[in-house]
Amino acid sequence: MSDKIKLSENVMLIDAAFLNFVTNDLKRHFERMLNRSLQQIDLSQLVTYLALDAGLAEGDNAVQIMFVYDRESTHLTHTTPADLKTELDGVAFKNSLGEFTFAGVPSAEMVTRGELFLDLLNIVADSDDVKRLVVVSFNEEYGDKVTAKLRMVQKKQLLQFRMNEPDQVVDYRWEFLAYPLMQALGIRSEEL
User: Fold this and answer.
1) Left if phi > 0, otherwise alpha if psi is -120 to 50, otherwise beta: which for 122?
2) What are phi and psi of 104, to 5 degrees?
3) CB burial class (10 A; 0-12, 13-18, 19+) of residue 89?
4) Which single residue of 33, 108, 143, 165 has CA 20 to 30 Å from 190?
């Protein structure tokens, strides 16, 4: 099929509402705990940390970052740039790991953000183009369906960022999202 979607070898699929939820929670908690204001997240740094955690090595890599969002999550909180439609959609940056390209994917009125996330996950997970997949899903809303899909994925390097351990044993890699977010917020290990 010649009109299929062209995907990069490295894809990050991120639920913007979940990222906002976790960022707000961490920022509020650590500002109280550390008794200081935390910096805004530089989005290029955050996705670089996620890519490094996923095992991406320096080189001429192409990384596609898809933010799924709805009307309540059109902006990333405490992040620059933040607007998924006007500041990030179609924008890219390069660093020592390669080129990172952003796409904002809005849920229409006919599907929820969760349904759109799962549809995109199916497309990306089933694509032969994609070799490495990083998933940041809203597990409290639709995590069981994400887990079921990720269990079926073959021949890809998988990493799911979560805030809690999986309820059951999973046969793919997962990491706590808090760690790269804390780094991006400027929290130093010696402060903890």
Assistant:
1) alpha
2) -95, 125
3) middle
4) 165
**Euclidean distance between CA atoms 9 and 149, whole angstroms:** 19
Backbone angles phi, psi at 129, to 5 degrees: -65, -35
The count of residues in the chain is 192
SS (H, E, C) the chain: CCCCCCCCCEEEEEEHHHHHHHHHHHHHHHHHHHCCCCCCEEHHHHHHHHHHHCCCCCCCEEEEEEEEECHHHCECCCEECCEHHHHHCCCEEEECCEEEEEEEEECCCCCCHHHHHHHHHHHHHHCCCCCEEEEECCHHHHHHHHHHHHHHCCCCEEEEEECCCCCCCCCCEEEECHHHHHHHCCCCHHHC
Taking only the tens of pLDDT, the chain with its 192 residues reads 335 678 999 999 999 999 999 999 999 999 999 999 999 999 999 999 999 999 999 999 999 999 999 999 999 999 999 999 999 999 999 999 999 999 999 998 889 999 999 999 999 999 999 999 999 999 999 999 999 999 999 899 999 999 999 988 999 999 999 999 999 999 988 888
